[in-house]
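Pipeline run #58 for the internal structure catalog. This entry was flagged by the ingest filter as a single-chain record with no existing model, so it goes straight to prediction. Upstream metadata was stripped on purpose; only the residue string is passed forward. Reviewer on rotation: M.T. Logging verbosity set to normal.
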Amino acid sequence: MKVIKLDDINLLDVGNTIGLTGSIWTNNEGVSYIALLPEFSIDDLGEIQALEMDADDWAKFIRQSDLVETEILKNDNGNLKKVLVRKTARIIDTKMQWRVFQRDNYTCRYCGQTGIPLSVDHVQLWEEMGPTIEQNLLTSCKKCNKMRGNIHYEDWIESDVYKIISNNLPEDIKLKNIDKINELEEIRKYSVNVLRSR
């Protein structure tokens, strides 16, 4: 069996093209059992690779698979002791959503449209541990949110697509969008500190 690291796979594939097919259980005699979900068979597994991950890797992996409430417990010497996971969805509190909409004048921060269905977009991608805090959220119309997809914010702001759709944005909003790039480092530090404090 090939042993790989988390960096050997594309984290954004977890929960998308890399999905759950079952679980592995081990007894105290060292025998492991692969328990497959009913719709899968051993023939569906193909090549099996073992992911060797530390506690931080586990937090990233589990969060990406839409299991966002993760408690990583370490023993006194810092080794992984237990991982507690509670299944949740990527749901943004309605009050927070409306505060973001109000802050952004109910206007898409990417194309400037108003009077259309709005959503909130994570500046630092949710899939990459981006926190669901107001500083990391922008108002986006559903079309722009979909167009951005999983493009890193810096790349999105520099993309030809953004340059075209942002033509009608007032200059102050364009500047705010560019300034958001400078805030990303603080947002990332926040994410890391939240994970470490658990």
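catalog note: The radius of gyration is 20 Å.
catalog note: Confidence is low (pLDDT under 50) at residues 67-71, 82-89.
status: ready for reviewer M.T.
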